[in-house]
Fold this sequence. Notes:
Number of domains: 2
CATH superfamily of the largest domain: Creatinase/methionine aminopeptidase superfamily
Number of strands: 17
Strand content: 15-25%
Structural class: alpha+beta
Helix content: 25-40%
CATH class of the largest domain: Alpha Beta
Order of helices and strands: HHEHEEHEHEHEHHHEEEEHHEEEEEEE
CATH topology of the largest domain: Creatine Amidinohydrolase
CATH architecture of the largest domain: Alpha-Beta Complex
Amino acid sequence: MTGLDSALKGFSRVSVTDITDAELAARLAGLRARMAGQGVQAVWLDASSSLRYYTGLGIGLSERVHGALVLPEALVYVSPRFEVPKLETMLRLPGEILAWDEHEDPCAAIRARVGGTLALDPATPFLFASRLLPAVSAGPMIAAQRQVKSAAEIAIIQAAMDASYRVQRAVWQGLRPGISTTEVGQFVDAAHRALGLSPLFVAVQFGEATAYPHGVPYPQVLTEGDMVLVDLGGVLKGYRSDITRTYVFGAATPRQRALWQAEHRAHAAAFAAARIGAPCAAVDAAARASLAADGFGPGYDVPGLPHRTGHGLGLDIHEDPFMVQGNLTPLAPGMVFSIEPMLCVYGECGVRLEDIVHMGAAGPQWFCPPAARIDAPFE
């Protein structure tokens, strides 16, 4: 039995309280207050994560219009008629159901219910959005709420992050010469299921392939001295986890240590810059300044950091707020985002240390312990 097989037998399902109906109702009340303040008569929520955020309803996107219309005094679910029996079993918040048959135009029915300005969920496909015009974007209103997490949301993300941290540690402990990236990926998915999470994604890279932020399109086999990069995430009650670790299988060379330490300094600099009231862009700038001081970059130049330093995390794996140049959104308590200033050296290797933080009243807090040393990333 391999180390990964043994680890899998030791996992059991995690438990955490779901978002309550009362919190969903409060979110809708907050959206309606923003609608009133901006003169918006209605907000269309497509089959997206925002529909789940406000109503608790999780449905898949398809070629058919399916979602909810938020009005000042009403919540109207819009559904293909043949889906209504299933929909009724899924609803958590009461509302009218506007059903449509295949020969009918649901967008015309939606427009008929709106007496003023309509704002669209930014996740609405153009196929539908173009038929709902004229309209404005509901993106700023939605982002203002979703990017500030409640205590219940943070608790779910914490449980998801704890689970994925255990999976990361098990991978590190269970690696062996000759193991393939495919085998590691299969273990990660199985481990998340054993812990009660739905697998979201896994990226496993060895050696030179670690230089590329999104990996390479072919499997690899592990050998002594390889840099190892494992990026993974799962889904728990709709909320995402996301964590990356990079280390060496075997003894690290002086060059590998130097690159890892440069990444570690940039990671720490970004965390230090995440202060209440500071703009999101300051987190990105701090990481780039640290890498530049170590001779990398500047800017997006490689060897260096070719992408943003971080992204928000919640019901989506990538959501507001983004830690990127030009984003002047001030950091506020409740924001949840990644810090991952990846150091890419094409043709050689890369190092990404990705951890998620949440902003407390006094500043940033890690969900999981960050890596301290290349030789012991889980001490």
